[in-house]
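Box 3.1. Reading complex inputs
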Amino acid sequence: MIKKWVFAFNEGDGKDKKLLGGKGANLCEMTRIGLKVPPGFVITTEACLAVVADPEKKFPPGMMDQVHAGLADVEQKSGRVFGGRTNPLLVSVRSGSAMSMPGMMDTILNLGLNAGTLQGLIAQTGNERFCYDAYRRFIQLFGKVALGIPEAEFDTEFAAVKSKAGAKHDVDLSARDLAAISERFLNVVRRSTGKPFPDKPLEQLEIAIRAVFDSWGGKRAVDYRREFRITPDMANGTAVNVQQMVFGNMGNDSATGVGFTRDPGTGENVMFGEYLVNAQGEDVVAGIRTPKPVAAMADEMPVLYNELLNLRSQLESHYREVQDFEFTIEKGTLYCLQTRNGKMNAHALVRTSVEMANNGLIDKRQALLRIQPEILDQMLFPRLDPKVTKKPIAKGLPASPGVAVGVAVFDADRAEKLGRTGERVILVREETKPEDIHGFFASQGILTSRGGKTSHAAVVARGMGKPCVSGADGIHVDVSMRHARAGDQEFGEGALITIDGTTGAVYLGEVPMIEAEFSPELGTLLSMADEMAKLRVMANADTPDDAQRALKYGAMGIGLCRTERMFNGTERLPIMVEIIIAENQEERQVALDRLLPIQREDFRQIFRIMSPRPVTIRLLDPPIHEFLPSEHLLVEDLDHLHHLREILQGMQVLSDAVTFMNQTRDIHPQVQKFTDPVLVDEAIVKKEAILKKVRALHEVNPMLGHRGVRLGLTFPEIYTMQIRAILEATAECQKAGIEVHPEIMVPQVCTAQELKRVKVWVDSIRTSVEKTYEVKLDFRFGSMLEVVRACMRANHLAEEAEFFSFGTNDLTQAVFSFSREDAENKFLPMYNQSGILQDNPFEVLDVKGVGRLMEEAVKWGRHTRPDMKVGICGEHGGHPASIHFCHRIGLTYVSCSGPRIPIARLAAAQAALLEGEKMADKAV
Ligand code: ADP
Ligand code: MG
Ligand code: MG
């Protein structure tokens, strides 16, 4: 049996985007629910794949027969004839794969025109000018898209006729001018291809279908898929939609436009969009004429405006999602030509989620699942400091919110080159085209002097979450001179500019910005998320300032407080150095006694800020040589000091000589006044002591060396000081009525024996502190799991530890036997590129290896201690896919850096909502 390659719009399954592509599936769906859609059919993505796979690139058997049948069906529904000399049917040929790829593949309009059908069209419409315009557009588009003729060849001819006719705008061209242009265009095709323009409508259709199939493997499409990691199981092949043409350029009762059911920049619940009277769809998208906001239609075409509002609500209540739709009005009849889920920035996504859930259009589950956690990053964007009163040099449309600063660059290739070197770049163009896409990737923001909020630049920038100002027509952009002018202000390539996509303002130079704040809607959404999530989300925070910030992001506690950061303060580091170079225990104790109150005060503040949430403090972890200068530096310093001492000695000699030679000259006191040699000697002694220590502490592989609990057990004074500081701070808080839940965490543990020994200290310090402060202390004692052996012995460790926290950075290094820095700088990029490893395991948790080990460790730990609290700290804790895994193996919490917390909260909710569904990667 021959496969079904073609589905009429009233036949196709509107849910099957993989087979019909997004555009095709939605055309079917809209037809099915009774919206006014011009009739047509979809050729499936399977047909595209069959052509791609065929060595001779032949259409699969039966496909063209089905296309013919499909055409017959459209002829019947439209009452027109394809290729007919009277009442001809014209069609558009549109591409569309399962994933929306704006501007990636080109549409051909008005297909079916030739000298004969043109006469039919003239008879049918009685509008000669319109018909010649349609004809020249078709030849041009078909020539460019299907035959690959450079656009410039047509542009030159067009310009020639325009100037001959003395026309300023395209609309000033007469039917005769347009006929002349069509004639010249036909010649362009003959010249470029060596063959006459294909006349037969069926032949045109075949060529066009083939061109759409080919575009799937074209550079633009391939680049786009690579950048957005669109894999074949997400979208494979493009469908072709063949659809009756309707015309928005048939006079002043015709129009064309695009709409969003809600404002995609702010999320506000108002219809948003733009339209042009008497124009074809491509005019809006290409930014050739600047369109009017859709609200203006209320005055200009009130009846149709109401129909449009009606369409908007039908679309939203059916799809239960913000829709981005295209419409065309032909002589007073409104047609919907496309709908798809609207791409929005994070602000708009969050706001619409909250409002649609409140209206009951969607439920909380959908409200949470429709947002990719990573996108929340955008909401933490900085904005322009409102106190700054700098005047913008121009104002365009606020096309995609956010502020971007960078150097102006006038073409996509340069933008890409500069962007690669790490330069911040703003792409400045008159308008952008799909072939500029690589420039978008490399830029901080996009500025165009033409085009509306639905122009290519605006749509693509919004999709990427990059700031964009479009249609800044006060700026004259001269791409060939790499130069732009706004009034008497100008800037060239490399000049620093600032654009504000939230207001549309453009500034010369860099304008100061302020930190982003949490919007109330985000707060609401994340509280919804917290209700659904099982995982708790903690922060990695080392200082009271960090803790304060983490709370703003909604941290439910601190999962990792690294004490060593506290030692690095300017007044603390010298004490730390004293501790390290101490000759004996007494000396060391003196320094530690100075550090104790400082640490205690840190902890007290953090506890107070986080109360009543838990705070997990990790005892000292890094090898202590990290607190000392490098050997190389010390040797250099000593060299200088020795020199200085010689010079000082020389000066002493000079001074004596002067005294001897001439008692009266007053050079004498000056020489004397100079640096005291004793000071220099002291410095030398100190530096030498440090150098000796640095050499003694030298390790071949410090990350696997004397660090963590191993260090703690060899220098008991350090850990006991830290434990005392924690417990005294706890006691102070408890006495002051502040609820605290500290947790003492031991790093680098590999055997229960290590934990046992630290525990002995903890117990004895607890007894002493409880006695001094007369309180009963409430805290937990636990272990990091970052050594493979510790994971294997989790059941034993759990006898001492009341909680575990996976340190997945060290654990990943251990499981792979990769040293992170060496791996990332040497071979890991190659491993990722060539597919030996799919991801960087230091960024994306390696579920199959490291994850397996974690899963077992959790089981064994809970075997001993069923209510064991288990978490993860480190970068992975803020990565959505890793969070899903943590949920699956039953962790209690994830801990990540402050700004990742909103992302982690949403990901934790999604993990819970998608529990049981296959790996839940839909949402990540
Ligand atoms: P894109 O991927 O650029 O959205 P489309 O297939 O939607 O490509 O088409 C480009 C333009 O042509 C749009 O403005 C669309 O509305 C218009 N268009 C497509 N098909 C038709 C048609 N049958 N009648 C009128 N306009 C059409
Ligand atoms: Mg297109
Ligand atoms: Mg479209």
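In summary: DSSP finds 36 helices and 33 strands in the chain.
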